[in-house]
Amino acid sequence: MFIPLHDANTLKHIKVQWVTLALITLNVAIWLLTSLESEQAAQATTVALGYIPAIAFGHAVLAQGLEIVPEPLTYLTYAFVHTGFWHLASNMIFLWVFGDNVEDAMGHLRFLVFYIACAAAGALCHGLLGTTSEAPLVGASGAISGVIAAYVMLHPRVRVWVLVFFRVPLPLPAFVPLLLWIGQQFLMLAIAPDGDVSWGAHVGGILAGALLILVLRRSDVPLFDREIVTPRAVRNETGSGPAVAAGTDGRTAPRLPWGRGRQ
């Protein structure tokens, strides 16, 4: 439906989004390692680290030699395995654009807990919808879905540049593309629950993200902020808004980085 490109939403509580950057780095590193393996070895890694409902619910067991991690850990490890470049890239773009502000709203440690919990919730929801499935679930989209839900609850009116239908770049309030995306996940779960994409994992992540942001955000961080932030690329030098400040003579001047305009 759309690809997020940029949001003009500066960090307020942290200087660097260390956890977001670490998660992206780890996902990319694991994908690079698995892409260097033979096809047979890559498939084995997918099965060993992926989340398999039939195994999680006791309907099957892994073949000998594939038990790399204890089964409970697959509720997390599956979120760091991707089957191809675009599978990886699409998830990491969403994490890059939206993860920093969610991390900013929570702090580093709580954001890491949040990310892990959303990943686990995605796997659990996927498993409950098909407890006997032997197909491995892989990919970070369950955790990313939680990040998206948290972001839209924190900053629904922040302007986000998105690439619509892979062709048209548009600056939109965050709630427009993100709520459409969230609605699509629930719709697809209802009409195509057995497709190649795990809509259940997305919905599980969304529900977890929406609930966890209520308790994990900083005490001074409000929900549904009212500030509209316009991307620099579409700001007008003489317009009114967060980029300018009015002087005593009625004219406007660019707002300085520390928040004081020409007086």
Automatic annotation (TrEMBL):
Transmembrane segments: 16-36, 48-69, 75-99, 111-129, 135-154, 161-182, 197-216
GO biological process terms held by the UniProt record: proteolysis
The Peptidase S54 rhomboid domain, residue ranges: 73-218
Keywords on record: Cell inner membrane, Cell membrane, Hydrolase, Membrane, Protease, Transmembrane, Transmembrane helix
Bilayer disposition of the protein: Multi-pass membrane protein
Subcellular location(s) of the protein: Membrane
Gene Ontology CC terms, in alphabetical order: membrane
SUPFAM superfamilies, sorted: Rhomboid-like
Pfam families associated with the record: Rhomboid (PF01694)
InterPro entries attached to this UniProt entry: Peptidase_S54_rhomboid_dom (IPR022764), Rhomboid-like_sf (IPR035952)
Single annotated GO MF: serine-type endopeptidase activity
Residues covered by region (Disordered): 237-263
Name of the protein: Membrane associated rhomboid family serine protease
Organism: Rhizobium fabae
